[in-house]
Amino acid sequence: MLTFGNNSPRSKKQNWPEDPVSFFKFFPHTERKEDDPAIPVILALVMACGGSNTPTPQAAPQETDIPTEKPTVETDTPAPIPGATDTGTSLPVNALIAYISNRTGNYEIYSSYLDGSETKQLTDDPADDTDPDVSPDGSKIVFTSTRNGNKDIYVMDADGGNLLQITDDPADDYMPAWSPNGKVIAFTSRRSGNSDIYLVDAGGAETAQYTNWPSDEMNPCWSPIDPVLAFASTRDGDLEIFIMGTDGNFKQLTQNDYTDAGPDWSPNGRFIIFSADTKNTGSTNNLTDTNLQLIEPTGKGLQQVTSIDGLEVEPAWSPDSNYILFSSMMAGNADIFLLEENGTFYRITNDAAVDSSPSWGPITEK
């Protein structure tokens, strides 16, 4: 029996500073040294929580415990999948979600309700638009686009209006994730030569590096309670799940010989869900049969969430922590599914094109 639901009120973000944007002026912008794995520390987040106003040198990190409206889209519909409940009135929850699809030939960002109503194309550009993440209040969507030649981070209103480019670097910037208060965006970038995690304020004015290791760090997601990030890293050879706080100390949550990637932190703070390619040991690229697993931020309580043949990736928690959206290849192409704690799953998209990368907006009345 799965255990991840939460009927109690969402944990308060009592440890989040009121104005985290102000911390950017305190970021250390040290040059990377190939023989020095020290991680730049986000000092001002600590200061905003009552720390000193004078930056001090940090020791090398140690592993520690860390508590315009677009047209409605009409498409062909493939046959239903055995074992999955079709989208419709039987859904236990409804919400407006964002996701990507290549149903017009390239990847664009779409929105629709979980019941399939009001499907809209939000972006329309010859380049690919991917990695959507809906802001905590549901008013904005941050995403990755190649419309200027390489991958950069953009923000738009939830209806597709008021597009704003917030990163502009020759290197690729991608995989953005909103902070719980909607003021800071974490993302992956290759501007240091390998993949590292960076932060940018929601207006694009200030950018700072969060991780600085010779390995690759990617897929950032935020704790809802503290200014802590979870991410996937190749620090021990293959992709594993780590968390790191503002003091630069980190904790490795998974340790095995297969790929763990795509973490998402539950809004109640209890679990981190991720995809695990348990049948493809020793590889970080050729995913074959991934399923979803979850683990506590302490590194304990590992649970298998799905046991379905094929790829189950890109898990995303509902705002109340009671449901999980994910992308699956169980129909031969990628579609989006909804999972309940009792193990029932529902097919949300049902299109011959690729639909993936789901992100929740606010839950609505059914």
Care to describe what's here?
By secondary structure, the chain is mostly beta strands. The chain has a single domain, classed as 6 Propeller (Neuraminidase), CATH 2.120.10.30. It is 2% helix and 35% strand. The strands form 6 sheets. The chain has a 4-stranded antiparallel beta sheet with strand order 3-2-1-24, with no helix packed on it. It has a 4-stranded antiparallel beta sheet with strand order 4-5-6-7, with no helix packed on it. β16 and β17 (272-277) form a beta hairpin. The longest helix is centred in the N-terminal third of the chain and has 6 residues, at 43-48. It is globular. The protein starts with 42 loop residues before the first helix and ends with a strand.
What is the strand tally? 24
Helicity level: under 10%
Q: Radius of gyration from the CA trace? A: 20 Å
Number of helical elements: 1
- Mean pLDDT metric: 80
Q: What is the annotated CATH architecture?
A: 6 Propeller
Q: How is the main sheet built? A: 4 strands, antiparallel
Spatial sequence of strands, sheet with the most strands: 3-2-1-24
Question: Segments where pLDDT lies below 50 for 5+ residues?
Answer: 7-14, 18-61, 64-82
What is the count of structural domains? 1
Class based on secondary structure composition and strand pairing: mainly beta
Q: What is the CATH fold-level name?
A: Neuraminidase
N to C succession of SSEs = HEEEEEEEEEEEEEEEEEEEEEEEE
Globally, the shape reads globular
Tell me, what is the CATH class? Mainly Beta
**CA(first)-CA(last) distance:** 26 Å
The CATH homologous superfamily is called TolB, C-terminal domain
Strand content: 25-35%
